[in-house]
Automatic annotation (TrEMBL):
<dbReference type="Pfam" id="PF05258">
    <property type="entry name" value="DciA"/>
</dbReference>
<dbReference type="InterPro" id="IPR007922">
    <property type="entry name" value="DciA-like"/>
</dbReference>
<feature type="compositionally biased region" description="Basic residues">
    <location>
        <begin position="10"/>
        <end position="19"/>
    </location>
</feature>
<feature type="region of interest" description="Disordered">
    <location>
        <begin position="1"/>
        <end position="31"/>
    </location>
</feature>
<feature type="compositionally biased region" description="Basic and acidic residues">
    <location>
        <begin position="20"/>
        <end position="29"/>
    </location>
</feature>
<protein>
    <submittedName>
        <fullName>DUF721 domain-containing protein</fullName>
    </submittedName>
</protein>
Amino acid sequence: MKRGSVPGNGRKRKGGRPVRVREPGRGGDPKMFGAAIHELMASRGWEQRAAVGGVFGNWAGIVGAELAEHTRPDRFEDGELTVAADSTTWATQLRLLSSTLVRRLNEELGHGTVRRVKVVGPSSGPRRTGAWRAR
């Protein structure tokens, strides 16, 4: 190749076959990894699920270390986040903070993603039916 010439002009590869040039945007062009993942998630409708998963992974960063020590997000369905607390005291505390928590979660996930936070406390097991008992 001569100095100053443009590669690929008028030249063929060894073997005599011309080099195929792909059209831009036809899927064969390299993309940044983050952009490719974002495009895949958008095309499959996984963006919200991934964002909610990020909240589950960063629970302590959202609610604070002390509250995260006693609570954990359990599931997210139809705009309702269910959070489990390890005691009735912490369940009550979280219920008092639920409107603030909804606002904070929507800042992270996008407006209207979380409509309600449902707090569940520890279960004491099934109650026995029948007469009152004293011990």
